[in-house]
Amino acid sequence: YLKNSHFIDKVKQNVKVTGARLADRHLNLAVTGLSGSGKTAFITSLVNQLLEANDSAELPFFSVVREERLYGVKREAQPNLSLRRFEYERAMQALDAQPACWPESTTGISQVRLHIRYKKNRGLSRYFSEDALLILDITDYPGEWLLDLPLLEMDFAQWSQHCDQELLSPERMQLAGEFVTLRDSLDLTAKGDELALKHIASVYTEYLNQCRSAGFQLLQPGRFILPGELAGAPVLDFFPLSDVQVQQTSQRGAVKGSNQNLLHKRYEHYQEQVVKPFYTQHFKRFDRQVVLVDCLSALNNGRAHFNDLQRALNWLLTSFEYGKSNILSRLFDPKIDKLIFAASKADHVTPDQQSNLVKLLDSMLHNARKQMQFDGVATESTAIAAIRASQAGKAVHQGEDIQILQGTDAQGTPIRMFPGDVPAKCPGDNFWLTQGFDFPRFAPPQRLEQQALPHIRMDRVLEFILGDKIR
Ligand code: GDP
């Protein structure tokens, strides 16, 4: 009997070791969103909530914490040494400064790896392994890069025509004056003049940057605004032609070595050597994706900007449309199985408006993805504040109780306000005529020593992304 029980113990032990190995899981989570949508704040908070999960973080909807199965989370060296490291410590330093500052925004791709040790929950696995490890790699990359995917299906003439359409917007045209003059006076048949092209490309980039500062989001090519390691490289020295130029050049055909020929070649190089490699080297590996959308700033900035965000979303979502005819399915087999859309900075509206914010986001996504199929991908939309910078309170207005927000501005002056009602769907003309939506930029909260960052619904996001992987 003794011998037998020894044998069983031994088997159990072996099974446990193998089980633990089998149970090791790896998850590639990607976080994206257009510039300023809150990626840096989001990843900083996500890492902070996980590191503090067993201490000061408030994560009631995160099952592994609620069920007291989380042993601990540690930062580990990132796997891809040629990618920038996500600067978590620097972001926390900014938030811990006196007064607290928002961390510097994302400008390229970066990565952070976490090891999550937990106890398994499944009935059967009791006999295999008690403990398990999830290796979580989080990749942060600019949503602007996703706006480039449709470029793969346009030739230079088609892309130029698309950009010319953009210039029909009077606000954009006003910013594009210098670029348009230079572009229209370029002799396309003349021998390629690298310096002239470089100069016009830099004026075009400046125009895109001004559009961005003015709150526009649909800006292409994506690397012109956030070039990452390509800053200054000749592959970025091209720009779109006007409709008239396109007509002329299509009749004439490009002369080898001419300005026109150089522009064509660079556009094609950009497609092949910049856009495609992002998808085949990085995007291809993502298992799950968070897309942050800053609906509130767009509402704040007015109709043209809101419509622009809507159009940018339409373009951006083509990267997740995995129908058979999709260009990504032709390049490789995408494997994202969960996709979460989050309206960011929800602490800018009172709690009673947050469900409207989710509905608004849904309505924008629905406009964008009416004909889209997310084959085999579970999607979810929510409203979050990665770092909650305001407190909800009550006030009496014209004899009625209303909800208000309280926080401070960047100078430390207290703010008490009702920011306005959020429309529950993409707003029509009336909303813009009578628009009363307005919010200030809150300063980040002053954190007490070692307290987890305050947030709204980050625990639900964690549950959606990780819950099934750490059962
Ligand atoms: P990124 O460009 O996508 O990396 O955007 P950031 O994370 O840098 O966010 C841009 C700005 O949005 C920040 O500097 C903050 O002012 C604001 N922001 C981002 N997340 C939040 C949030 O959860 N709450 C509030 N109140 N502001 C936020």
Q: What does this entry look like structurally?
A:
Strands 1, 2, 3, 4, 5, 6, 7 and 8 form an eight-stranded mixed sheet that branches. The chain is 40% helix and 16% strand. 37% of the residues are buried. It is globular. Helix 7 packs antiparallel against helix 8 and helix 13 packs across helix 15. By secondary structure, it is of the alpha/beta class. It has two domains: 274 residues, 3-Layer(aba) Sandwich (Rossmann fold); 131 residues, no CATH class. The site of guanosine-5'-diphosphate (GDP) has 21 residues, from helix 2.
Question: How is the biggest beta sheet arranged?
Answer: 8 strands, mixed
Shape: globular
How would you spell out the order of helices and strands? HEHHEEHEEHHHHHHHEHHHEHEEEEHH
CATH topology heading of the largest domain? Rossmann fold
Mean pLDDT: 89
InterPro entries: P-loop_NTPase, YcjX-like
Organism: Paraglaciecola polaris LMG 21857
Pfam families: DUF463
Protein name: ATPase
Summarize, please.
The protein is α/β, with parallel strands linked by helices and 471 residues long.
